[in-house]
Prior knowledge:
Blueprint: E1 2-8, H1 13-24, E2 30-37, H2 43-50, E3 55-57, H3 66-79, E4 84-87, H4 96-101, E5 106-110, H5 125-134, E6 138-145, E7 155-162, H6 169-193, E8 197-200, E9 203-206
Parallel strand pairs: 1-2, 1-4, 2-3, 4-5
Antiparallel strand pairs: 5-6, 6-7, 8-9
The structure holds 5-O-phosphono-beta-D-ribofuranosylamine.
Amino acid sequence: MLRVVVMVSGGGTNLQAVIDGVTNGTITNTEIVGVISNNKNAYALERAKNHDIPARCISPKDFPSREEFNRELLAGVDAYQPDLIVLAGFLVVIPEEMIQKYRNRIINIHPSLIPAFCGTGYYGLKVHEAALSRGVKVVGATVHFVDEGTDTGPIILQKAVNVEQGDTPEMLQRRVMEQAEWIIMPRAIDLIANGKVTVQDGRTIVEI
Ligand code: GRF
């Protein structure tokens, strides 16, 4: 069984998609062993509790320095002894020590087709605002391994979504979630849990 820790900051709809996938058997060989939020008011924590998944908040606000927060975050993750760490809308920069320790064992969902609209400053609605302002006709989402850069790690899965006439950033964000994020995140976890994803020379080989 792949032991998965999910890290969240907000509503947790991607966490919910993973919980649902494990429950309905779309994600196999997988157990969600813990949820960590940096925000004590994140609804994602409620979702975890509703499914009896151990969940806790580790907030930078509760520590005198970033170093101490980073140490506690890593200790909190380690305590669950995860095989895979899933960043599902986690808005905190992952400490370098964690990236090294869990190399190719941390995945993130980004709401664009990387390398478009990604990197520093592209998060949340800003991604969709930028896509609309550029006038692209196709957007999407990407699941990738996390390395030291921002959205630069090996790409695991991507799914395209059409932009429609009259879209607002909010409408586009919702469609990208429904038609891409909630599908490829569970699928990526299932592939990893079944040994179908390997990394070679900074790129993935995915057996689909
Ligand atoms: C998603 O759009 C994800 O791509 C981004 O943050 C959002 C998280 O939403 N990184 P939720 O908390 O999973 O509902």
